[in-house]
């Protein structure tokens, strides 16, 4: 389905976690299904047909599994909103795993159960092979509760009901404390992609040792490059990291640069950004460098100096001019190079298109010459032409900044916001021209990752909560029960993330997945209990309904939590960091999901859960007797 039907070309290694996800979710669904199947004999007795029992099971267990499958799948699908390809693919793949698991639970597992009941359960061969097997064991009195069901109804349930107020207060306080700690989840502070645990020899160099060697760390200030002629459009396949898309050119040619309006705007472009807080003036940084001003690639400043110089002041004596070149005065001095009677003494911006083109080409040719700046020349002067048609395609301008490259998000965020604000003002002067689609680029790939993770993680979590609320509301059709369930899910997620922060986790790719997936995994037990409570035969007494819920679903929830916890436990022994983290996350989620479902959701339901009007007392007593 993933590769053929959906035609997704990229299968990241993150998708392998789906194996462990389906072990946990699939085991939970199997336990719910089989418990409901065993309980169906209490409804229909030994004389009930397999069709009647299976219809009852699919009605009761199918609805409960549908809620958990929809919420878990939607939580995974929320990762499709991420800007990071591997996270998008991971979310869709794991959502498919959950959906396929649900359909198999409605088709394949019922078929196996029917085959077992008809041909295997009463087989003498089965009983001779495994007399202690729970599948082969035939209880003497099938109407009697199993020991685990009796324990939940007679021991565990009364404890929850009796201490419902202190339990609810204690677990709300715990969620508030860990939730406050969860707010301290920081964005990643290192651009190094960590594949293994920090103690692994292959990671120790990147994380600890490389900084002891010269040249191992990134340094230097950022350069701000302004790109004209290309749209800032990512038209590649966002599901394939190897598809970079194609450049989308803005319709322009060389003459478009030379309209009077564009000449004036482009000449003042660099001046506008020189007043920015992030601009680094090369002449201030290095006053001894006579050619410092040429570190800024601002072509039309050169053009203006060249064409406005009086013709009588021009000369072919390069050495005299360059000797007089110093700092800001260097532009004026360079404007005198080349004795000429044209392209001098002109007003700027130039209004004649032919003169503007010829003079500008002369300046670009002069600036690209080694005779002028030697190894300081700017090569193509920021002009990039189509090699086939020789048409101008891209025009670049460049300035230095005082922003040192580093991996601190807050510093780059300030720079990013300031640059965007200045860019918005500068583009206003180019409105209606080809240059209005100008954008800037610099070395901000890690900042982009940090920002994408921060936005995507909380966006996905918000969508997961919204999906969970919608599914619970649709399936239960009870706003009180839905709100209590949602409160419990939020508490579980806060506790899980709070523990991860205590373990010094950062908001990296793995943690971004966890925030949204935590909602889907936390909702399972909550949904099972809510659905079972609604179908309790006693609907006018909250406490009796809670006892029935624990008797019916307590064993399934406990065994499901144990199997998922064990699946995560196997993953923590992996050297691969992602598997270790996901395994640890699964274990913590199971601990808090089981605890809060039993010690927060059920006490809240016992306190303020929905009830219906009392039935006739005789009918009510009969229902309680049947249930017991």
Overview of the structural elements:
- With 628 residues, the chain is mainly α.
- Helices cover 61% and strands 4% of the residues.
- It is built from 23 helices and four strands.
- It has helices spanning 18-44, 50-77, 85-120, 124-129, 147-162, 164-182, 201-209, 254-257, 260-267, 269-274, 282-285, 299-308, 318-324, 329-334, 353-367, 370-373, 409-428, 445-476, 479-502, 509-534, 542-571, 577-608, 617-627; strands spanning 221-228, 383-385, 392-404, 439-441.
- Strands 2-3-1-4 form a four-stranded antiparallel sheet.
- A hairpin with a 6-residue loop joins strand 2 (383-385) and strand 3.
- Helix 2 (50-77) runs antiparallel to helix 18 and helix 6 (164-182) crosses helix 19.
